[in-house]
Structures are given as structure tokens and as C-alpha cells.
Amino acid sequence: MNVKLPSVRDLVKLYGLSAKQTLSQNFIFDKNITDKIVRCAGITAADSLVVEVGPGPGLLTRSVLDTNVQHVVALEKDSRFIPTLTQLADANDHRLKILQGDAMKVPHSDILQLAGIHRVDPLKRIHIVGNLPFNVATPLLIQWLHLLQQRKGLFGAAEVWMTLMFQKEVAQRICAPVNTPDRGRLSVITQTLCSANIPYLIPSSAFLPKPKVDAAIVHLRPLQYQEMPFDLLEDVLRFFFTRKRKSASHILNLLQSQLKLETALPSSIDSNARPENITTQQFIQLAISLREMGIDRLS
Ligand code: SAM
What we know:
With 299 residues, the chain is an alpha/beta fold. 39% of the residues lie in helices and 16% in strands. The longest helix has 17 residues, at 134-150.
């Protein structure tokens, strides 16, 4: 950083930036923690772009800028943080651009345009990082997974690694391997497209105000592209996981009769398996088989 800035804690006091519960604001004031999040993300100066969602007063943003990456876009909904973020941009040769808006709605083309990136080198990486607002973290992840599957937005421009904070329980569900009790729809849909792991658990005491639950960082890297009917797969997962205690044979029979199919569904799934015992690849294969039988969606 070129210019000495006040600490984020002092800025919050100076601007009277009390945390808004409606925006799930819980701030981190310990730079050791934000530096570690950035190390977990694997950001290097050679990467194309880092998009930070929900920078708030900007401590994680400072850690991102410390990597010397050339383009950082901070996407923040709450206008109260824009002056402190602008100050940070001024102190960093404007490598940081600030976009005020809702991460659920901002078009990714706006992000690339603001960063001044007209053509992304596909060999260079893009990162999405964020201490996400807990109330929008899962819908945002689902939206990004859809874009990744379609190779659209940032996901159409380059390889995108995501390093995101979730409530610990949600993080464990996202990363849950087959045959574990946390395994659910969110685990399978995420692991269909990404490798997912938890490199860092963060206790609730690290935040101000202290939330009720601990948090965890989830690191996601896209897997090799695989053609699949993604919406249909989501329907299949909903069908199975709303019947979590039933056996696969029971669920498959139910599906067969609901779809009025005359022949049994081809499947390699063990008839006694419960949904949590079914592998990601078996679910993908089932969705592909349904598609081949002319089924687009489950109602
Ligand atoms: N990154 C900061 C930190 O670690 O101290 C703040 C994290 S706080 C948990 C979440 C931040 O996301 C807040 O600054 C909040 O205003 C912002 N936010 C909430 N909903 C948002 C949305 N839909 N789009 C963009 N930012 C949002």
C-alpha cells in the first residue's frame, strides 16, 4: 500500500458504521485472519482479477490488495461503505474498483468492464472471494454454479476459483463426501461442478458483532467440463433428498411410476442405498439416462 491508511477499526468508528443485521453484517478486524483467507484462496499477482463480494469496511480487501494482483473489484450493497472503500482505492493506484449493488443482480459484464478488462486471458485465473452475507451466501453459490455450468459471465471468461465464507454447518454440507450424514442436495450439486474443501474454520469470536455460529472458508475449483442436464439433475436431487430416509429402490420405483415409465430406470445405484450413499457420478448418470428417455424436467 502506498499511503498510510487509518485502521479499519478506526474507520468504522470514524464513519459510525454500525453493523446492520438486515445485511448480515459481521466484521473481521484481525488482519492475520483476512491474510490467511487470501492464502487459502491462492491469489497471486499474476491472476487476472479478484472479485470480492461484500467487502464492508474493507479489511479482507486490504489483504487481497497486498498480493499485488492488478485488478480487484469490490461489490458492496451498503452505500455507507463506499467512502472508506474509495479511500482504499485512492491509496492503491486504483487497482481497486468499487461497484455498489446487489451481488445477486449485478451483471458480470459490468464487473469486467469496471475492471477495464476487455479480453480476459483464459490462461489467467479469476477469483471470487468473500466473507459473504450469510443470508445470501447459498443463493449466490447456486447462481454461480449455474453460470459455471453454462460457462457464462465471469465463468465464461476464465477459470474461476471461489473462496467463500459460510456458516460452518453450511460449509460442511457443501463439502460432505458420499456416505456421510451431512451429505445433501447442496453437496452433490456443488461437487458435480467443483472440488470443494474447507481449508479454514473461523470461530464466531473472530467477528464483530459475534454471530451465533462459527464460520468456515470453503475453497471451490471447477472440475473438467462434463455435458449434463443440470436443471434435471437439480430436480432429481430434490426428488431423492426430500426422501432422505427411503431406500434408492423405493425412490426409483416412485420416480418410475410418477413419470409413467413402462421400463425400470437404468441405474447402477445399490437398491438399499439411501440418498446420502449415492455418488455424485451416479446422480449425474441418472439425470443423463432420464434425459435420454426424453424427460426434460421432473414436475
Ligand atoms: N468483508 C467484511 C468483513 O469481512 O469484515 C464484511 C462482511 S459482512 C459478513 C457482509 C457484507 O456483505 C456487508 O458489508 C454487507 O453490506 C454486504 N452485503 C450484504 N448483502 C449483499 C449483497 N446482496 N450484495 C453485495 N453485498 C452485500
